[in-house]
Each structure stands twice: as structure tokens, then as C-alpha cells.
Amino acid sequence: MRAVVFDRPHHFRVMDVDDPRPRPEQVRLRTVATGICGTDRHLLAGGFMARFPLIPGHEIVAEVESLGECVAGLSIGDLVAVDNTVLCGHCAPCRRDQPLYCDHFFSLGVNGPGGFADLLVARAEKCFPLDGLEPMTAVLTEPLACAIHGADVLALRPGSDVLLFGAGPTGLLLAQLLVHGGAARVTVAAPSPHKLDVARHLGADETVRMDRSDPQASLRRLRALAPSGFDAVIEATGAPAVLAMCPEMTRTGGTVLVYGMAGADDTVPFSPYEIFSRELTIKGSFAQTHRFDRALLFLRTGRIRTDGIITDRFPLERFGDALSAVAGSTSVKAVVMG
Ligand SMILES: [Zn+2]
Ligand SMILES: [Zn+2]
């Protein structure tokens, strides 16, 4: 089969590799659509949990092609969204209901073979049938599942005034979750006017363009919206300079959520006195487990909308173009088609 292979930092090839063979509890899947995520760029650079050689791709919709001998409940030809997380179920964190920190955490497309390939194998119970949901909608199940975990971590109080930095696919999904999750007002701040248009279209109450050449002017506009600060400020860009602005934009007693993935060596200067004297809370949200069923229900009912999020589609051979597309200001999400 053909696969994208990250073989060393900053280098990949689209090449022929052996077809994977399903174990008894696994199915073999033919990929239909796999989303490109910012994490893929971190992995290509050798960051996060990268282990080379790696077949990336963790936002996967695929068709069941063959069944391991112990698989029940799936049929050949089923279209499924694949929960990429693999958990052991018996280590200490799994046994204390913290499966996200499983000692043997394994993630398809992150530290094991993923969806930028013709075929992949996955455990049957991690395959969620689409039951008629459009594949190009379902390909957002994994990012939405992560956003649901973020909203769970944030635990917003009803009536909150929320500021969200970032209008990428994740920001656009999170903004909608916050609207439905009790925010009285959601403000999205980002540099791209196009992405801010999409954010407004999907339900953001206010949008503020972050002018990279004059960030202070952008901050003044945000302060004019909420002179005492926002109840919750979410960093969904991964840029340390953006996170550094979050505490000062947060109301006394409020919460900063670190959602975007920064580099492992990045640091951010904070005033400990400000955190202490204004009783700010800083929370982190990393990936997801067990959020696929809720994500799929949101997508099925249309309560979370996806229009305007997928802007680019590429065949597997043009993986490099797909990676570059998402760095542009008009592309939101690129998808590699099987
Ligand atoms: Zn991702
Ligand atoms: Zn475990």
C-alpha cells in the first residue's frame, strides 16, 4: 500500500510499504478521509511523542475492509470514525480512571501507524460507525472529541464571558461548544479575517483581529470589550506569546485554559504575584479519551456545525501541499482523501 512515512525530523516520503495485517481483535480499514492537524507539523519536526519511522494521521474516517477473527458488531463495508487512542486498561492511571495518562498510551498516527495511508488496522471497539453521517463531517470527530475534553476540563459556569485566542479548526469547534456550554458571550481573537468570518458565521458573538504588527492595539480592543477581564481565556494557538497575554485578559478569579500545543521547550513569563493576588486558575487540556460518542452526536444533530471548516482536499501523493495549505491564512482545515 501507499503511505506517508515520516522517516526523520523534517523529512517525509510517500512510499510503498507492506499492507498491515489485523490481529484477532482488530479490523483492517481502507482510509476515506484523514484530517491534517497542527500536531502533524509538530510530529514532523520530531516533537510531541514522535517515533520515527511514523505513518502519521490521527483524524481518520475509513471503510472496514476485513475483520479479525474475534470481531463482532462491525461488517465489511461499514464507514467508521476511528478513535485513535489505544489504552491498556490495566496500568495504575487506567485503574484510577485517568486513561489519558495510561502508562502505555498509544495513539494511531502519533506514535503508531495512522491514517495517511491506503490501509490501517485498529481495534474494533475504537471504530464508531457513521450510520449515514457524511464522511467529510465525520472527519472532524477527533478534533471535536478533543474540544469536548477541553470544555469538560474548563467546566464553564453558565453566563461566563469567554475569550478564545485562535480560529483554526479547533478554535471554531471550541467556540461552538462554549456557546452551547453556558457562555453568555464568546469572543474569538485571531489574525486571519477569513477565519474570523467563519467564527462569526458559526456563532461567535464578537471577533477581534489580532494585528501581529501592533498586538497592543488588538489588546486594547479586547479590553474595551471586557474592561474587568474575561471569566475564561482559552489559548488555542500554541503560541507562547499568545499564552503570555492570557492572565492579564482574565477577570479576577477567572481561568486560563492552555489548549493549543506549544513546543516542549517553550516557556512563558508569568507574574506569580498576579496569579496569587487575583486568584487565577491555569488549566491544561491534552487530547481526549472516551469522547467520540458525544462528538458524533453533536455532529449528527448539527448542533456543532462544520460548514466552512474543511477548505482543502488533497490526494495522498500531495501530502506536502496539504501540510503547507494549513499554514495559509485562508485555509482552515485540509483533508487527505483516500
Ligand atoms: Zn489533531
Ligand atoms: Zn493504561
UniProtKB/TrEMBL annotation:
Keyword Oxidoreductase: yes
Domain Alcohol dehydrogenase-like C-terminal residues, every copy: 169-297
InterPro entries xrefs: ADH-like_C, ADH-like_N, GroES-like_sf, NAD(P)-bd_dom_sf, Zn_alcohol_dh
Organism: Streptomyces coffeae
Keywords for this protein: Oxidoreductase
Keyword match Oxidoreductase: yes
Function per UniProt: Catalyzes the oxidation of 2-deoxy-scyllo-inosamine (DOIA) with NAD(+) or NADP(+), forming 3-amino-2,3-dideoxy-scyllo-inosose (amino-DOI).
Entries under CDD domains matching the protein: threonine_DH_like (cd08234)
Catalytic activity, as annotated: 2-deoxy-scyllo-inosamine + NAD(+) = 3-amino-2,3-dideoxy-scyllo-inosose + NADH + H(+); 2-deoxy-scyllo-inosamine + NADP(+) = 3-amino-2,3-dideoxy-scyllo-inosose + NADPH + H(+)
Annotated PANTHER family: L-THREONINE 3-DEHYDROGENASE (PTHR43401)
EC number: 1.1.1.329
Domain of life of the organism encoding this protein: Bacteria
Pfam families, sorted: ADH_N, ADH_zinc_N
Protein name per UniProt: 2-deoxy-scyllo-inosamine dehydrogenase
Location of the Alcohol dehydrogenase-like N-terminal domain: 24-130
SUPFAM superfamilies, per the entry: GroES-like, NAD(P)-binding Rossmann-fold domains
